[in-house]
Amino acid sequence: IAKTSLTSPPWPEVKLPDPAEEAKYHAEVVQKVNGMIAAGQYGRLFAVVHFASKQWKITSEDLIMMDNVLEAECGDRIRMEKVLLVGADDFTLIGRPLLGKDLVRVEATVIEKTESWPKINMRFWKRHNYQRKRIITNPQTVLRINTIEISPCLS
Amino acid sequence: MVLLSAPRWLRSRLTDRFWRVQEVLKYARHFRGRKNRCYKLAVRSVRRAFVKSTKARREKKRFLRALWITRIEAASLEHGLKYPAFISNLFKSQVELNRKVIADLAIYEPKTFKSLAALAQRRRQEGFLAALGDGKEPEGIFSRIVHHF
């Protein structure tokens, strides 16, 4: 058959590596990472957590401020469950979309529950004698991330 | 003797005009020109400033999203992928990170971003192979070549 512009697809031809070899390589990598986690050879861990309908990139000892009320008293310890990504210097664990609860543990403490600075909402139409001014203070909560821990239960 | 109407020396006078004016001028102190001093000009400027800030609060979300997308595009081009390919393949491999977090990773965690780009590239190649299918011709078609007699 003659070669036309539609005989071969417009993308360059790709060849995937052998699945058996790939599986072996994957198992090796997983074992290595498990060993590293068990031995504790990671420095500072960072995690991407889905909390209060937002995604945050957090490390230990950093502060987070959310624009809503949390039903927990000041000083309560909280465990964040929806972890999307955990990483250290040499490896990252990417969740699809979430990581298991037995794999990662993110702990945080509620520090402060305040209101935001008074934001001014103003509407004005010119030549129509219409102006409305409203002052909004949103409740805010400040959390301090205490620890991020991982355990070597990869498979 | 009860007086039913108030005597003439009792007037209701405005005593806190200064503070009412200061309430408006305090928002105009950092403006340029006479509108940071004169009440009549300041009132108009402050009103416009409030209205602009309310509208800007809605636009800020759009602006920040565009900024994140530009940054992710730049970072993925460094790894040889275009932004639509990167994002679509990332979503197809069920990684649901939003653009803000991916932009932060691209800035502060380059190795993690590289692994995400490699994941997207691999998913893209698997998609191409799946689109090609078996390579056999579909049934019901007897020839692709048309003979003219």
TrEMBL record, chain A:
Transmembrane segments: none annotated. InterPro entries: bL21-like (IPR028909), bL21-like_sf (IPR036164). GO terms for cellular component: mitochondrial large ribosomal subunit. It holds the Pfam family Ribosomal_L21p. GO terms for molecular function: structural constituent of ribosome. It comes from the Eukaryota. Belongs to the bacterial ribosomal protein bL21 family. PANTHER family: 50S RIBOSOMAL PROTEIN L21, LARGE RIBOSOMAL SUBUNIT PROTEIN BL21M. This is Large ribosomal subunit protein bL21m. It comes from Podargus strigoides. The gene is Mrpl21.
UniProtKB/TrEMBL annotation, chain B:
Keywords: Ribonucleoprotein, Ribosomal protein. It comes from the Eukaryota. It holds the Pfam family Ribosomal_L20. Coiled coil: none annotated. CDD domains: Ribosomal_L20. One of its GO terms (biological process) is translation. GO terms for molecular function: rRNA binding; structural constituent of ribosome. GO terms for cellular component: ribonucleoprotein complex; ribosome. Belongs to the bacterial ribosomal protein bL20 family. PANTHER family: 39S RIBOSOMAL PROTEIN L20. This is Large ribosomal subunit protein bL20m.
